[in-house]
Amino acid sequence: MMRLPWQMPMAVWAVRDLMRHGALHLLLFSALASLVALMAIVLLLHQTLITATERLLAQAPAMVVRRVNAGGWTPLPAATATAQADAVAGVLNPRARIWGVVQGPQGPITLIGAAVNTKTRLPDGMRYPRPGECLVGPGVMRARGPDQISLRGAAIRSLTVAGRLPEDSSMAVYDVVVAHRDDAREVLGLAAGQASDLALDVFHADEADALKPILASAFDFPVQISLRETQLKRHHNFIALRGGTACLAFIPALPAMAALVVATGLLGRRRREFALLKALGWTGGDLLRLNLYKGAIVGAPAIATGMALAYGLMFTPGITWAARLLFGWHQAPPALYLSALAAGPPLALSALLAGLPYSAAVFWAGLRTLSLDAAHVVEENRE
Amino acid sequence: MISNGLSCLDLTFAHANGTTILDNIDADFASGQTALITGATGAGKSSLLHLLGGLLRPTSGEVWADGAPVSRWSAFHQDLWRRKVGVLFQHLHLLNDLSILENVLLPRVPRREPWHRMVQQAEALMDRLGLGPDFQAPAHTLSGGQRQRVALARALAAEPRFLLLDEPTSFQDDANTLRLFALCTEMAARGACVVICSHDQRLRCAANQFSQRLHLVQGRLEAQPCPGTH
To answer: Which ipTM was obtained for this model?
Structure first.
Protein backbone atom coordinates (compact mmCIF):
# COMPACT_ATOMS: atom_id res chain seq x y z
CA MET A 1 0.00 0.00 0.00
CA MET A 2 1.22 3.51 -0.76
CA ARG A 3 2.23 5.69 2.11
CA LEU A 4 -0.23 8.51 2.17
CA PRO A 5 0.05 11.62 4.33
CA TRP A 6 -3.58 11.06 5.25
CA GLN A 7 -5.26 11.74 8.55
CA MET A 8 -8.11 9.36 7.80
CA PRO A 9 -6.78 5.79 7.83
CA MET A 10 -10.32 4.44 7.68
CA ALA A 11 -10.95 6.13 4.34
CA VAL A 12 -7.63 4.83 3.03
CA TRP A 13 -8.54 1.39 4.26
CA ALA A 14 -11.95 1.60 2.61
CA VAL A 15 -10.28 2.27 -0.74
CA ARG A 16 -7.89 -0.61 -0.18
CA ASP A 17 -10.74 -2.90 0.80
CA LEU A 18 -12.64 -1.97 -2.37
CA MET A 19 -9.56 -2.82 -4.43
CA ARG A 20 -9.53 -6.31 -2.95
CA HIS A 21 -12.74 -7.03 -4.87
CA GLY A 22 -12.03 -4.55 -7.66
CA ALA A 23 -13.96 -6.24 -10.46
CA LEU A 24 -17.10 -6.63 -8.38
CA HIS A 25 -17.02 -3.07 -7.18
CA LEU A 26 -16.35 -1.82 -10.70
CA LEU A 27 -19.41 -3.76 -11.78
CA LEU A 28 -21.39 -2.20 -8.96
CA PHE A 29 -20.12 1.24 -9.98
CA SER A 30 -21.12 0.66 -13.62
CA ALA A 31 -24.54 -0.69 -12.69
CA LEU A 32 -25.30 2.24 -10.43
CA ALA A 33 -24.03 4.79 -12.95
CA SER A 34 -26.08 3.19 -15.75
CA LEU A 35 -29.19 3.12 -13.63
CA VAL A 36 -28.85 6.79 -12.70
CA ALA A 37 -28.16 7.67 -16.33
CA LEU A 38 -31.22 5.78 -17.56
CA MET A 39 -33.53 7.48 -15.11
CA ALA A 40 -31.93 10.89 -15.59
CA ILE A 41 -32.31 10.69 -19.39
CA VAL A 42 -36.03 10.07 -19.14
CA LEU A 43 -36.54 12.82 -16.60
CA LEU A 44 -34.28 15.29 -18.42
CA LEU A 45 -35.98 14.72 -21.76
CA HIS A 46 -39.37 15.23 -20.20
CA GLN A 47 -38.26 18.41 -18.46
CA THR A 48 -36.50 19.72 -21.57
CA LEU A 49 -39.54 19.32 -23.75
CA ILE A 50 -41.82 20.98 -21.24
CA THR A 51 -39.42 23.91 -20.88
CA ALA A 52 -38.95 24.22 -24.62
CA THR A 53 -42.68 24.10 -25.30
CA GLU A 54 -43.40 26.75 -22.73
CA ARG A 55 -40.70 28.99 -24.11
CA LEU A 56 -41.92 28.56 -27.68
CA LEU A 57 -45.54 29.15 -26.84
CA ALA A 58 -44.62 32.20 -24.80
CA GLN A 59 -43.46 33.67 -28.12
CA ALA A 60 -46.56 32.48 -29.96
CA PRO A 61 -49.57 34.71 -30.66
CA ALA A 62 -52.31 34.70 -28.05
CA MET A 63 -54.92 33.69 -30.65
CA VAL A 64 -54.86 32.25 -34.13
CA VAL A 65 -57.85 32.62 -36.46
CA ARG A 66 -58.34 30.22 -39.34
CA ARG A 67 -60.99 30.36 -41.97
CA VAL A 68 -62.84 27.11 -42.38
CA ASN A 69 -65.50 25.78 -44.69
CA ALA A 70 -67.17 22.43 -45.20
CA GLY A 71 -63.92 21.05 -46.60
CA GLY A 72 -61.81 22.21 -43.71
CA TRP A 73 -59.18 24.93 -43.71
CA THR A 74 -59.30 27.53 -46.46
CA PRO A 75 -57.28 30.71 -47.11
CA LEU A 76 -58.61 33.97 -45.80
CA PRO A 77 -58.50 37.44 -47.34
CA ALA A 78 -55.58 39.06 -45.58
CA ALA A 79 -56.53 42.74 -45.63
CA THR A 80 -60.23 42.23 -44.83
CA ALA A 81 -59.57 39.79 -42.03
CA THR A 82 -56.94 42.01 -40.48
CA ALA A 83 -59.28 44.99 -40.54
CA GLN A 84 -62.17 43.00 -39.08
CA ALA A 85 -60.03 41.68 -36.23
CA ASP A 86 -58.57 45.09 -35.56
CA ALA A 87 -62.06 46.42 -35.00
CA VAL A 88 -62.62 44.14 -32.00
CA ALA A 89 -61.88 45.85 -28.69
CA GLY A 90 -59.06 44.13 -26.80
CA VAL A 91 -57.40 42.70 -29.91
CA LEU A 92 -53.87 43.88 -30.59
CA ASN A 93 -51.57 43.60 -33.55
CA PRO A 94 -53.52 41.35 -35.92
CA ARG A 95 -51.28 40.01 -38.68
CA ALA A 96 -52.00 37.77 -41.62
CA ARG A 97 -49.59 34.84 -41.88
CA ILE A 98 -48.55 32.91 -44.92
CA TRP A 99 -47.42 29.42 -44.09
CA GLY A 100 -48.12 25.77 -44.77
CA VAL A 101 -46.58 22.35 -45.08
CA VAL A 102 -44.96 21.44 -48.39
CA GLN A 103 -42.54 18.80 -49.59
CA GLY A 104 -38.86 19.66 -49.09
CA PRO A 105 -35.76 17.81 -50.28
CA GLN A 106 -35.82 15.32 -47.40
CA GLY A 107 -39.50 15.27 -46.48
CA PRO A 108 -42.25 17.61 -45.34
CA ILE A 109 -41.17 21.07 -44.21
CA THR A 110 -42.97 24.13 -42.90
CA LEU A 111 -42.85 26.99 -45.41
CA ILE A 112 -43.25 30.50 -44.05
CA GLY A 113 -43.75 33.52 -46.26
CA ALA A 114 -41.99 36.62 -44.98
CA ALA A 115 -41.33 40.11 -46.20
CA VAL A 116 -40.27 43.33 -44.59
CA ASN A 117 -43.86 44.39 -44.01
CA THR A 118 -45.26 41.03 -42.82
CA LYS A 119 -44.18 41.45 -39.19
CA THR A 120 -42.52 38.04 -39.27
CA ARG A 121 -39.62 38.21 -36.84
CA LEU A 122 -36.29 36.79 -37.89
CA PRO A 123 -33.26 35.99 -35.69
CA ASP A 124 -30.92 38.90 -35.09
CA GLY A 125 -28.61 39.67 -37.99
CA MET A 126 -30.67 37.87 -40.63
CA ARG A 127 -32.28 39.72 -43.50
CA TYR A 128 -35.60 38.93 -45.08
CA PRO A 129 -35.28 36.73 -48.16
CA ARG A 130 -35.70 38.43 -51.50
CA PRO A 131 -37.83 36.81 -54.23
CA GLY A 132 -36.15 33.55 -55.27
CA GLU A 133 -34.28 33.24 -51.95
CA CYS A 134 -34.98 31.41 -48.76
CA LEU A 135 -33.62 30.76 -45.25
CA VAL A 136 -33.56 27.14 -44.06
CA GLY A 137 -33.72 25.51 -40.65
CA PRO A 138 -31.11 22.99 -39.40
CA GLY A 139 -33.29 19.97 -40.14
CA VAL A 140 -34.14 20.87 -43.73
CA MET A 141 -30.74 20.19 -45.21
CA ARG A 142 -27.19 19.60 -44.10
CA ALA A 143 -25.02 22.56 -43.18
CA ARG A 144 -22.81 22.00 -46.19
CA GLY A 145 -25.67 21.16 -48.53
CA PRO A 146 -26.39 22.62 -51.97
CA ASP A 147 -27.24 26.28 -52.43
CA GLN A 148 -30.52 25.49 -54.11
CA ILE A 149 -33.60 23.92 -52.57
CA SER A 150 -36.62 22.58 -54.36
CA LEU A 151 -40.03 22.91 -52.72
CA ARG A 152 -43.07 21.06 -53.97
CA GLY A 153 -46.59 22.07 -53.06
CA ALA A 154 -49.32 23.45 -55.31
CA ALA A 155 -46.38 24.46 -57.50
CA ILE A 156 -42.74 23.49 -57.64
CA ARG A 157 -40.20 26.21 -56.95
CA SER A 158 -36.46 26.12 -56.72
CA LEU A 159 -35.07 28.69 -54.30
CA THR A 160 -31.55 29.85 -53.52
CA VAL A 161 -30.51 29.26 -49.92
CA ALA A 162 -29.54 32.75 -48.75
CA GLY A 163 -28.96 31.80 -45.12
CA ARG A 164 -29.41 29.20 -42.47
CA LEU A 165 -31.43 29.68 -39.33
CA PRO A 166 -29.24 29.33 -36.24
CA GLU A 167 -28.78 25.97 -34.52
CA ASP A 168 -29.80 27.34 -31.14
CA SER A 169 -33.25 28.17 -32.48
CA SER A 170 -33.73 24.67 -33.83
CA MET A 171 -36.49 23.80 -31.41
CA ALA A 172 -38.59 26.43 -33.23
CA VAL A 173 -37.24 26.41 -36.76
CA TYR A 174 -35.89 22.89 -37.18
CA ASP A 175 -37.93 22.02 -40.29
CA VAL A 176 -38.74 25.57 -41.38
CA VAL A 177 -38.03 27.28 -44.69
CA VAL A 178 -38.57 31.03 -44.74
CA ALA A 179 -39.16 32.31 -48.27
CA HIS A 180 -40.30 35.58 -49.75
CA ARG A 181 -44.01 36.11 -49.28
CA ASP A 182 -44.79 35.85 -53.02
CA ASP A 183 -42.75 32.68 -53.49
CA ALA A 184 -44.43 31.09 -50.46
CA ARG A 185 -47.89 31.99 -51.78
CA GLU A 186 -47.04 30.38 -55.08
CA VAL A 187 -45.83 27.11 -53.56
CA LEU A 188 -48.71 26.99 -51.08
CA GLY A 189 -51.27 27.74 -53.77
CA LEU A 190 -52.49 31.00 -52.24
CA ALA A 191 -53.80 33.76 -54.46
CA ALA A 192 -52.51 37.33 -54.12
CA GLY A 193 -53.99 38.97 -51.04
CA GLN A 194 -54.73 35.64 -49.38
CA ALA A 195 -53.18 34.42 -46.14
CA SER A 196 -53.10 31.10 -44.31
CA ASP A 197 -54.37 32.45 -41.02
CA LEU A 198 -54.50 35.46 -38.79
CA ALA A 199 -52.40 35.77 -35.65
CA LEU A 200 -53.21 38.32 -33.00
CA ASP A 201 -52.41 39.33 -29.45
CA VAL A 202 -54.83 40.45 -26.79
CA PHE A 203 -54.73 43.27 -24.31
CA HIS A 204 -55.20 40.92 -21.37
CA ALA A 205 -54.20 37.25 -21.67
CA ASP A 206 -57.07 36.30 -19.33
CA GLU A 207 -59.56 37.85 -21.75
CA ALA A 208 -58.61 35.60 -24.65
CA ASP A 209 -61.25 33.01 -23.86
CA ALA A 210 -63.96 35.62 -23.45
CA LEU A 211 -62.93 37.34 -26.69
CA LYS A 212 -63.29 34.18 -28.71
CA PRO A 213 -67.04 34.41 -29.53
CA ILE A 214 -66.84 38.17 -30.10
CA LEU A 215 -63.95 37.72 -32.48
CA ALA A 216 -65.70 34.85 -34.29
CA SER A 217 -68.70 37.05 -34.96
CA ALA A 218 -66.53 39.88 -36.28
CA PHE A 219 -65.68 38.00 -39.47
CA ASP A 220 -68.03 37.57 -42.36
CA PHE A 221 -66.87 33.97 -42.87
CA PRO A 222 -66.78 30.99 -40.51
CA VAL A 223 -63.57 30.71 -38.48
CA GLN A 224 -61.88 28.39 -36.07
CA ILE A 225 -60.03 30.16 -33.26
CA SER A 226 -57.35 28.52 -31.17
CA LEU A 227 -55.83 29.98 -28.03
CA ARG A 228 -52.26 29.83 -26.87
CA GLU A 229 -53.39 28.35 -23.56
CA THR A 230 -55.22 25.56 -25.38
CA GLN A 231 -52.10 24.81 -27.41
CA LEU A 232 -50.02 24.79 -24.26
CA LYS A 233 -52.32 22.30 -22.57
CA ARG A 234 -52.33 20.10 -25.65
CA HIS A 235 -48.55 20.05 -25.75
CA HIS A 236 -48.34 19.35 -22.05
CA ASN A 237 -50.70 16.43 -22.47
CA PHE A 238 -48.67 15.10 -25.37
CA ILE A 239 -45.43 15.35 -23.43
CA ALA A 240 -46.99 13.86 -20.33
CA LEU A 241 -48.23 10.92 -22.42
CA ARG A 242 -44.86 10.40 -24.03
CA GLY A 243 -43.08 10.98 -20.76
CA GLY A 244 -45.32 8.40 -19.13
CA THR A 245 -44.44 5.95 -21.87
CA ALA A 246 -40.80 6.76 -21.37
CA CYS A 247 -41.19 5.98 -17.69
CA LEU A 248 -41.71 2.37 -18.79
CA ALA A 249 -37.93 2.44 -18.93
CA PHE A 250 -38.13 2.46 -15.15
CA ILE A 251 -39.66 -1.03 -15.17
CA PRO A 252 -36.38 -2.80 -16.05
CA ALA A 253 -34.71 -0.32 -13.75
CA LEU A 254 -36.63 -1.63 -10.75
CA PRO A 255 -35.29 -5.22 -10.78
CA ALA A 256 -31.90 -3.76 -11.68
CA MET A 257 -32.15 -1.60 -8.58
CA ALA A 258 -33.23 -4.59 -6.51
CA ALA A 259 -30.29 -6.63 -7.82
CA LEU A 260 -27.98 -3.74 -7.04
CA VAL A 261 -29.28 -3.50 -3.49
CA VAL A 262 -28.85 -7.24 -2.93
CA ALA A 263 -25.35 -7.18 -4.48
CA THR A 264 -24.38 -4.27 -2.25
CA GLY A 265 -25.66 -6.16 0.76
CA LEU A 266 -23.80 -9.32 -0.19
CA LEU A 267 -20.56 -7.49 -0.91
CA GLY A 268 -20.70 -6.01 2.54
CA ARG A 269 -21.37 -9.39 4.15
CA ARG A 270 -18.04 -10.97 5.01
CA ARG A 271 -18.97 -12.46 8.32
CA ARG A 272 -15.73 -14.25 9.13
CA GLU A 273 -13.49 -11.39 8.15
CA PHE A 274 -15.50 -8.81 10.07
CA ALA A 275 -15.50 -11.13 13.10
CA LEU A 276 -11.71 -11.19 12.85
CA LEU A 277 -11.59 -7.40 12.72
CA LYS A 278 -13.72 -7.31 15.85
CA ALA A 279 -11.34 -9.72 17.51
CA LEU A 280 -8.53 -7.34 16.58
CA GLY A 281 -10.19 -4.43 18.31
CA TRP A 282 -12.59 -2.99 15.76
CA THR A 283 -15.95 -2.00 17.18
CA GLY A 284 -19.30 -2.40 15.48
CA GLY A 285 -19.22 1.35 14.85
CA ASP A 286 -15.86 1.02 13.10
CA LEU A 287 -17.23 -1.68 10.81
CA LEU A 288 -20.31 0.41 10.07
CA ARG A 289 -18.07 3.36 9.30
CA LEU A 290 -15.95 1.23 6.98
CA ASN A 291 -19.07 0.11 5.10
CA LEU A 292 -20.34 3.66 4.79
CA TYR A 293 -16.98 4.91 3.53
CA LYS A 294 -16.90 2.15 0.94
CA GLY A 295 -20.47 2.85 -0.07
CA ALA A 296 -19.74 6.53 -0.47
CA ILE A 297 -16.52 5.94 -2.39
CA VAL A 298 -18.36 3.77 -4.93
CA GLY A 299 -21.75 5.44 -4.84
CA ALA A 300 -20.98 9.15 -5.02
CA PRO A 301 -18.79 8.99 -8.15
CA ALA A 302 -21.16 6.45 -9.74
CA ILE A 303 -24.14 8.73 -9.26
CA ALA A 304 -22.16 11.75 -10.52
CA THR A 305 -20.99 9.75 -13.54
CA GLY A 306 -24.54 8.61 -14.26
CA MET A 307 -25.81 12.18 -14.17
CA ALA A 308 -22.97 13.44 -16.36
CA LEU A 309 -23.57 10.58 -18.80
CA ALA A 310 -27.27 11.41 -19.04
CA TYR A 311 -26.54 15.10 -19.54
CA GLY A 312 -23.98 14.33 -22.23
CA LEU A 313 -26.24 11.90 -24.07
CA MET A 314 -29.13 14.30 -23.94
CA PHE A 315 -27.47 17.56 -24.85
CA THR A 316 -24.54 16.55 -27.00
CA PRO A 317 -25.43 17.42 -30.60
CA GLY A 318 -25.74 14.50 -32.94
CA ILE A 319 -27.02 12.00 -30.42
CA THR A 320 -30.31 10.84 -31.80
CA TRP A 321 -31.22 7.61 -30.10
CA ALA A 322 -33.17 9.04 -27.17
CA ALA A 323 -35.42 11.17 -29.36
CA ARG A 324 -35.85 8.35 -31.87
CA LEU A 325 -36.75 5.89 -29.16
CA LEU A 326 -39.09 8.12 -27.23
CA PHE A 327 -40.55 10.43 -29.86
CA GLY A 328 -40.08 8.62 -33.14
CA TRP A 329 -37.90 11.31 -34.73
CA HIS A 330 -36.05 9.66 -37.55
CA GLN A 331 -33.79 12.49 -38.60
CA ALA A 332 -31.26 14.24 -36.42
CA PRO A 333 -33.43 15.78 -33.72
CA PRO A 334 -33.38 19.43 -32.76
CA ALA A 335 -30.66 20.28 -30.30
CA LEU A 336 -32.09 20.28 -26.80
CA TYR A 337 -31.43 23.15 -24.47
CA LEU A 338 -32.00 23.31 -20.76
CA SER A 339 -30.67 25.77 -18.23
CA ALA A 340 -28.59 24.49 -15.33
CA LEU A 341 -31.40 25.47 -13.01
CA ALA A 342 -33.97 23.46 -14.95
CA ALA A 343 -31.62 20.47 -15.33
CA GLY A 344 -31.03 20.36 -11.58
CA PRO A 345 -34.33 18.87 -10.37
CA PRO A 346 -34.43 15.94 -12.86
CA LEU A 347 -30.80 15.12 -12.16
CA ALA A 348 -31.32 15.41 -8.42
CA LEU A 349 -34.44 13.24 -8.62
CA SER A 350 -32.66 10.50 -10.56
CA ALA A 351 -29.78 10.62 -8.07
CA LEU A 352 -32.27 10.32 -5.26
CA LEU A 353 -34.22 7.48 -6.89
CA ALA A 354 -31.10 5.37 -7.30
CA GLY A 355 -29.10 6.76 -4.41
CA LEU A 356 -31.64 6.17 -1.66
CA PRO A 357 -32.05 2.39 -2.12
CA TYR A 358 -28.31 2.09 -2.64
CA SER A 359 -27.58 4.03 0.55
CA ALA A 360 -30.13 1.93 2.39
CA ALA A 361 -28.39 -1.25 1.18
CA VAL A 362 -25.00 0.07 2.27
CA PHE A 363 -26.37 1.07 5.64
CA TRP A 364 -28.19 -2.24 6.03
CA ALA A 365 -25.01 -4.21 5.27
CA GLY A 366 -23.17 -2.03 7.79
CA LEU A 367 -25.84 -2.46 10.45
CA ARG A 368 -25.58 -6.23 10.19
CA THR A 369 -21.96 -6.01 11.29
CA LEU A 370 -23.01 -4.32 14.54
CA SER A 371 -24.48 -7.55 15.84
CA LEU A 372 -21.54 -9.66 14.65
CA ASP A 373 -19.78 -11.58 17.42
CA ALA A 374 -15.99 -11.80 17.53
CA ALA A 375 -16.48 -15.41 18.66
CA HIS A 376 -17.19 -16.41 15.04
CA VAL A 377 -13.50 -16.15 14.32
CA VAL A 378 -12.62 -18.80 16.89
CA GLU A 379 -15.66 -21.04 16.60
CA GLU A 380 -14.42 -23.04 13.64
CA ASN A 381 -10.99 -23.62 15.16
CA ARG A 382 -12.00 -24.29 18.73
CA GLU A 383 -9.93 -26.84 20.54
CA MET B 1 -8.66 -11.16 42.25
CA ILE B 2 -6.18 -8.47 41.31
CA SER B 3 -6.94 -4.92 40.32
CA ASN B 4 -4.11 -4.66 37.84
CA GLY B 5 -4.20 -7.41 35.24
CA LEU B 6 -6.50 -10.27 34.29
CA SER B 7 -8.38 -12.52 36.70
CA CYS B 8 -10.54 -15.60 36.29
CA LEU B 9 -13.15 -16.26 38.97
CA ASP B 10 -14.76 -19.71 38.99
CA LEU B 11 -14.44 -19.72 35.25
CA THR B 12 -16.21 -22.56 33.48
CA PHE B 13 -16.57 -23.03 29.77
CA ALA B 14 -18.51 -25.77 28.03
CA HIS B 15 -19.37 -26.34 24.39
CA ALA B 16 -22.98 -26.33 23.28
CA ASN B 17 -22.94 -30.14 23.25
CA GLY B 18 -22.23 -30.09 26.97
CA THR B 19 -18.54 -31.00 26.89
CA THR B 20 -16.82 -29.08 29.67
CA ILE B 21 -13.51 -27.57 28.57
CA LEU B 22 -12.63 -25.44 31.58
CA ASP B 23 -13.91 -26.22 35.05
CA ASN B 24 -14.06 -23.60 37.82
CA ILE B 25 -10.76 -21.95 37.07
CA ASP B 26 -9.40 -19.30 39.40
CA ALA B 27 -6.27 -17.51 38.29
CA ASP B 28 -4.66 -14.09 38.31
CA PHE B 29 -2.36 -12.75 35.61
CA ALA B 30 -0.74 -9.59 36.88
CA SER B 31 0.30 -6.63 34.77
CA GLY B 32 4.00 -6.34 34.14
CA GLN B 33 4.41 -10.12 34.24
CA THR B 34 4.63 -12.91 31.73
CA ALA B 35 2.64 -16.09 32.37
CA LEU B 36 3.05 -19.41 30.62
CA ILE B 37 0.16 -21.86 30.44
CA THR B 38 1.10 -25.32 29.31
CA GLY B 39 -1.06 -28.32 28.66
CA ALA B 40 -1.65 -31.12 26.24
CA THR B 41 -3.32 -30.53 22.91
CA GLY B 42 -7.05 -30.16 23.46
CA ALA B 43 -6.64 -29.28 27.13
CA GLY B 44 -8.47 -25.97 26.60
CA LYS B 45 -5.55 -23.54 26.45
CA SER B 46 -6.92 -21.68 23.43
CA SER B 47 -10.41 -21.52 24.94
CA LEU B 48 -8.94 -20.01 28.11
CA LEU B 49 -7.06 -17.43 26.06
CA HIS B 50 -10.19 -16.56 24.07
CA LEU B 51 -12.14 -16.18 27.30
CA LEU B 52 -9.44 -13.90 28.70
CA GLY B 53 -9.55 -11.83 25.48
CA GLY B 54 -13.31 -11.46 25.50
CA LEU B 55 -13.73 -13.48 22.33
CA LEU B 56 -15.82 -16.12 24.09
CA ARG B 57 -18.25 -15.75 26.95
CA PRO B 58 -17.88 -18.09 29.92
CA THR B 59 -20.58 -20.63 30.67
CA SER B 60 -20.25 -19.56 34.28
CA GLY B 61 -17.80 -17.52 36.32
CA GLU B 62 -16.21 -14.26 35.33
CA VAL B 63 -13.20 -12.67 33.74
CA TRP B 64 -12.04 -9.42 35.30
CA ALA B 65 -9.64 -6.97 33.70
CA ASP B 66 -8.02 -4.23 35.79
CA GLY B 67 -10.72 -4.74 38.39
CA ALA B 68 -13.66 -4.59 35.95
CA PRO B 69 -15.93 -7.59 35.18
CA VAL B 70 -15.43 -7.49 31.41
CA SER B 71 -17.08 -10.86 30.74
CA ARG B 72 -20.33 -9.43 32.09
CA TRP B 73 -20.25 -6.41 29.82
CA SER B 74 -22.45 -5.95 26.79
CA ALA B 75 -20.97 -6.65 23.36
CA PHE B 76 -20.68 -2.91 22.73
CA HIS B 77 -18.52 -2.31 25.79
CA GLN B 78 -16.55 -5.49 25.24
CA ASP B 79 -15.75 -4.36 21.70
CA LEU B 80 -14.33 -1.12 23.08
CA TRP B 81 -12.39 -2.91 25.79
CA ARG B 82 -10.95 -5.36 23.26
CA ARG B 83 -8.91 -2.49 21.83
CA LYS B 84 -6.62 -3.08 24.79
CA VAL B 85 -6.12 -6.72 23.88
CA GLY B 86 -3.62 -8.14 21.42
CA VAL B 87 -4.23 -11.75 20.41
CA LEU B 88 -2.04 -14.12 18.47
CA PHE B 89 -4.33 -16.91 17.28
CA GLN B 90 -3.09 -20.45 17.01
CA HIS B 91 -4.49 -20.55 13.47
CA LEU B 92 -3.11 -17.06 12.79
CA HIS B 93 -6.14 -15.80 10.81
CA LEU B 94 -4.16 -13.62 8.45
CA LEU B 95 -5.92 -12.06 5.49
CA ASN B 96 -3.98 -13.76 2.74
CA ASP B 97 -4.66 -11.30 -0.07
CA LEU B 98 -3.37 -8.39 2.00
CA SER B 99 0.30 -7.51 2.29
CA ILE B 100 2.32 -8.12 5.44
CA LEU B 101 2.16 -4.45 6.32
CA GLU B 102 -1.59 -4.26 5.80
CA ASN B 103 -2.15 -7.28 8.03
CA VAL B 104 -0.06 -5.71 10.77
CA LEU B 105 -1.88 -2.38 10.45
CA LEU B 106 -5.34 -3.94 10.84
CA PRO B 107 -5.79 -3.31 14.59
CA ARG B 108 -4.71 0.32 14.24
CA VAL B 109 -6.82 1.38 11.27
CA PRO B 110 -9.86 2.51 13.28
CA ARG B 111 -7.81 4.47 15.82
CA ARG B 112 -7.67 7.83 14.06
CA GLU B 113 -3.90 8.04 14.08
CA PRO B 114 -1.83 9.63 11.32
CA TRP B 115 -1.31 7.03 8.63
CA HIS B 116 2.42 7.65 8.19
CA ARG B 117 3.06 7.18 11.91
CA MET B 118 1.16 3.90 11.94
CA VAL B 119 3.16 2.68 8.97
CA GLN B 120 6.50 3.74 10.48
CA GLN B 121 5.80 1.99 13.76
CA ALA B 122 4.53 -1.15 12.06
CA GLU B 123 7.63 -1.32 9.87
CA ALA B 124 9.91 -0.87 12.87
CA LEU B 125 8.10 -3.69 14.65
CA MET B 126 8.34 -5.99 11.65
CA ASP B 127 12.04 -5.21 11.33
CA ARG B 128 12.51 -6.38 14.91
CA LEU B 129 10.74 -9.60 14.08
CA GLY B 130 12.93 -10.16 11.04
CA LEU B 131 10.15 -9.66 8.52
CA GLY B 132 11.79 -7.01 6.32
CA PRO B 133 12.48 -5.63 3.93
CA ASP B 134 9.59 -6.48 1.60
CA PHE B 135 6.59 -5.43 3.64
CA GLN B 136 4.40 -5.34 0.55
CA ALA B 137 4.58 -9.08 -0.09
CA PRO B 138 1.16 -10.76 0.13
CA ALA B 139 0.70 -12.81 3.26
CA HIS B 140 0.01 -15.98 1.28
CA THR B 141 3.54 -15.97 -0.13
CA LEU B 142 5.15 -16.32 3.31
CA SER B 143 6.44 -19.41 5.07
CA GLY B 144 4.68 -20.74 8.17
CA GLY B 145 7.21 -19.12 10.50
CA GLN B 146 6.98 -15.77 8.74
CA ARG B 147 3.20 -15.90 8.83
CA GLN B 148 3.30 -16.54 12.55
CA ARG B 149 5.60 -13.58 13.09
CA VAL B 150 3.28 -11.37 11.01
CA ALA B 151 0.40 -12.46 13.24
CA LEU B 152 2.55 -11.68 16.27
CA ALA B 153 3.41 -8.24 14.89
CA ARG B 154 -0.31 -7.68 14.35
CA ALA B 155 -1.01 -8.59 18.00
CA LEU B 156 1.71 -6.20 19.16
CA ALA B 157 0.95 -3.39 16.69
CA ALA B 158 -1.51 -1.51 18.85
CA GLU B 159 0.69 -1.78 21.95
CA PRO B 160 -1.93 -3.77 23.86
CA ARG B 161 -2.34 -3.74 27.61
CA PHE B 162 -3.19 -7.45 27.55
CA LEU B 163 -1.14 -9.62 25.23
CA LEU B 164 -2.48 -13.14 24.70
CA LEU B 165 -0.34 -15.48 22.62
CA ASP B 166 -1.51 -18.92 21.53
CA GLU B 167 1.35 -21.27 20.57
CA PRO B 168 3.54 -18.34 19.47
CA THR B 169 6.63 -20.42 18.81
CA SER B 170 5.16 -23.45 17.08
CA PHE B 171 6.70 -22.49 13.72
CA GLN B 172 9.75 -20.61 15.01
CA ASP B 173 13.40 -21.56 15.14
CA ASP B 174 15.46 -20.88 18.24
CA ALA B 175 16.62 -17.43 17.11
CA ASN B 176 13.13 -16.22 16.47
CA THR B 177 11.91 -17.77 19.70
CA LEU B 178 14.49 -15.64 21.50
CA ARG B 179 13.32 -12.56 19.63
CA LEU B 180 9.79 -13.30 20.73
CA PHE B 181 10.89 -13.68 24.34
CA ALA B 182 12.63 -10.35 24.17
CA LEU B 183 9.53 -8.64 22.84
CA CYS B 184 7.28 -10.22 25.45
CA THR B 185 9.65 -9.23 28.24
CA GLU B 186 9.77 -5.70 26.87
CA MET B 187 5.96 -5.52 26.73
CA ALA B 188 5.71 -6.79 30.31
CA ALA B 189 8.32 -4.26 31.41
CA ARG B 190 6.11 -1.55 29.94
CA GLY B 191 3.23 -2.78 32.11
CA ALA B 192 1.45 -5.19 29.80
CA CYS B 193 -0.08 -8.39 31.07
CA VAL B 194 1.35 -11.18 28.89
CA VAL B 195 -0.21 -14.65 28.83
CA ILE B 196 1.28 -17.34 26.61
CA CYS B 197 -0.29 -20.73 25.97
CA SER B 198 2.05 -23.32 24.57
CA HIS B 199 3.14 -26.90 24.70
CA ASP B 200 6.48 -26.04 23.10
CA GLN B 201 9.21 -27.95 24.94
CA ARG B 202 11.61 -25.02 24.56
CA LEU B 203 9.30 -22.76 26.52
CA ARG B 204 8.88 -25.35 29.24
CA CYS B 205 12.63 -25.58 29.51
CA ALA B 206 12.95 -21.82 29.65
CA ALA B 207 10.53 -21.60 32.53
CA ASN B 208 12.77 -19.16 34.36
CA GLN B 209 11.84 -16.58 31.71
CA PHE B 210 8.28 -16.47 33.05
CA SER B 211 6.93 -14.87 36.19
CA GLN B 212 4.15 -17.41 36.41
CA ARG B 213 3.74 -20.92 35.09
CA LEU B 214 0.46 -22.85 35.02
CA HIS B 215 -0.48 -26.22 33.71
CA LEU B 216 -3.91 -27.01 32.33
CA VAL B 217 -5.08 -30.53 32.79
CA GLN B 218 -8.61 -31.95 32.62
CA GLY B 219 -10.09 -28.47 32.59
CA ARG B 220 -8.32 -27.37 35.77
CA LEU B 221 -5.41 -25.01 36.12
CA GLU B 222 -2.54 -26.04 38.35
CA ALA B 223 0.24 -23.71 39.38
CA GLN B 224 3.72 -25.01 38.66
CA PRO B 225 6.76 -23.67 40.40
CA CYS B 226 9.09 -21.57 38.31
CA PRO B 227 12.81 -22.07 38.86
CA GLY B 228 14.15 -19.47 41.25
CA THR B 229 10.74 -18.64 42.78
CA HIS B 230 10.94 -21.02 45.75
So the answer is: 0.91
